[in-house]
Specification:
417 residues, alpha/beta, UDP-n-acetylglucosamine1-carboxyvinyl-transferase, Chain, 2 domains, four-stranded mixed β-sheet, binds ligand EPZ
């Protein structure tokens, strides 16, 4: 198993380009099974989660190949709607194969999804949403069986603005006769990107980015070449890393509008931030002030996927911070590892109370999941001495050789087998 060995105490300076977004790529890859032409995805970042989705598409009969950074998908020969648990267990995103399989084959049989162990990760909103469109669903022996022979268009009211459920219902409705409306839809930028992808193939989706999305049924989707949006969580991770380590970093190929909640918090803490077109430059020259309160919320609120990273920053800031995690019930797993590095954190249910300390010290820690793994890297860069991070396979699910980018900025991270 690979580990990271990090020598702490280095500032971060320089320029890094942000890759395309994991959470945009995954639904776009799922959706490509609905296309009767060839889909070419430019700058397709090969996160391990993306590699698993390619394996799922291949299992369904699609032809997938990489040419440099482009992924070429020809789903014309896809002829299966059954996904075994071999791959579904590895990724959460397998759940939003339901919508595309229902749209194309009117049937789906998908094993329960996997994904980060950050909570129970229920799928009731997906199921109830599809059932309200007359999809017959049975759950047995760890599989979800869908019969959409008589799928209807209509209205779907989500009890919670779930990203995955919104994406699934959009895709399931693309070929339905009539118009489907989703109320209380999630507003994440990745949903807008999915809308743009579907419409570029001839679909008729509108309203993504707002809480009401309509999908007008079309007969088919034709092939296209598409470039997904950049990864706002990698952008946020690198901004927080520079804020914690001090230095001056310029991130290119970003969409600053996708990180407004984080940028506001980092300015509060004393960072200097400049925005110009697709570039965000952050400068931190001293120990930052604690951010008194951070609460994770659906977009455009503070993203839960940056909670572990900003928590790490608070452990070495000046003062006390309270972080409330509203999305996932067990997303504070990083705290045990940070405590080994000298952090002063108290956890009570969904609340973390952090007393900033002057410095963390290096230790042997283990990444519990993807984003807390990224938080531990930030801790290692700032800590005195050496830090070893185990189970870094979690981190590779959502970052592309993260050590290369951070070493380019001045970090000292070695990937050891
Ligand atoms: C997506 O997960 C992202 N994953 C997650 O990113 C992200 O944390 C999450 O959205 C929230 O922004 C992908 O896009 C692949 P949800 P998803 O459905 O769709 C509850 C990362 O690190 N819920 O919006 O699974 C759920 O328990 C990953 O890149 C139900 O109750 O998230 C949670 O409390 C981690 N029933 C809340 O909704 C359901 O049927 C938000 O979940 C579905 C969700």
């Amino acid at each position: 198993m690979e580990t990271f060995l990090i020598k702490g105490g280095t500032a971060l300076n320089g320029v890094v380009k942000i890759p395309t977004a994991k959470n945009a790529l995954l639904p776009i890859l799922a959706c490509s099974i609905m296309c009767d032409g060839v889909v070419v995805i430019n700058d397709c970042s090969r996160y391990t989660d993306v590699n698993y989705m390619v394996k799922i598409l291949t299992e369904l009969g699609a032809k997938c190949s990489f040419e440099n950074d482009c992924l070429i998908i020809d789903s014309s020969c896809a002829d299966k709607f059954f996904i075994s648990e071999e791959y579904t267990k590895k990724v959460r995103s397998s759940i939003f194969m339901l919508g595309p399989l229902i749209a194309r084959f009117k049937h789906a049989k998908v094993a329960y999804p996997g994904g980060c162990n950050i909570g129970t990760r229920p799928i009731d909103l997906h199921i109830k949403g599809l059932q309200s469109l007359n999809v017959k669903i049975e759950e047995k022996h760890g599989y979800i069986f869908c019969d959409a022979t008589n799928i209807l268009s209509g209205e779907v009211h989500l009890d919670f603005p779930s990203v995955g459920a919104t994406e699934n219902i959009i895709m399931a409705s693309v070929f339905s006769k009539g118009t489907t409306t989703i109320y209380n839809a999630a507003k994440e930028p990745e949903i807008e990107d999915l809308q743009n992808f579907i419409n570029a193939m001839g679909g008729k989706v509108c309203g993504a980015g707002t809480s009401t999305i309509t999908i007008e049924g079309v007969k088919k989707l034709h092939g296209i070449t598409y470039t997904p949006i950049s990864d706002r969580i990698i952008t946020g991770t690198y901004l927080i890393a520079c804020a914690a380590a001090s230095g001056k970093v310029c991130l290119t190929n970003t969409n600053p509008n996708h990180n407004t909640a984080l940028i506001s918090k980092l300015k509060q803490s004393g960072c200097k931030i400049q925005i110009k077109n697709d570039k965000i430059t952050l400068e931190a020259t001293h120990r930052l002030k604690s951010i008194s309160k951070i609460e994770t919320l659906p977009y455009p609120g503070f993203p839960t996927d940056l909670q572990s990273q900003i928590l790490t920053l608070q452990t070495i800031s000046k003062g006390t911070s309270v972080i409330i995690e509203n999305l996932f019930e067990t997303r504070f797993k990083i705290y045990t590892e940070l405590t080994k590095m000298g952090a002063d954190i108290i956890i009570k249910d969904r609340m973390a109370l952090i007393n900033g300390v002057k410095a963390l010290y290096g230790a042997n820690v283990t990444a519990p999941d993807l984003r807390s793994g990224a938080g531990l890297i930030i801790a290692g860069i700032c800590a005195e001495g050496y830090t070893t991070i185990n189970d870094i396979y979690h981190i590779d699910r959502g970052y592309l050789k993260i050590e290369n980018d951070l070493n380019l900025l001045g970090a000292d991270i070695k990937r050891l087998s």
